[in-house]
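Encode chain A's predicted structure.
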Amino acid sequence: MGDAPIVVHRPSRTGGRRVTVRGRIMGLAHSDDHLIEFLRQAGLPDAWELLDDPRWVEWQGGAPHEYGAGA
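Encoded structure for chain A:
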């Protein structure tokens, strides 16, 4: 696991990805819009520009921005 404060975990078997910010579980995102809302709730109102920055966001176990069901 990297040092990024935001982790978007691998897709679940039923779809969606768990999101943690600094170790705090924010919820299950089913889209970038959901992810942005979780980040806004965590105090990051301009988070769109952070999504593709690996210093901020670690995408685990799947391609970035994909929220479909995992294997």
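The beta strands are 6-11, 17-21, 24-29, 57-59.
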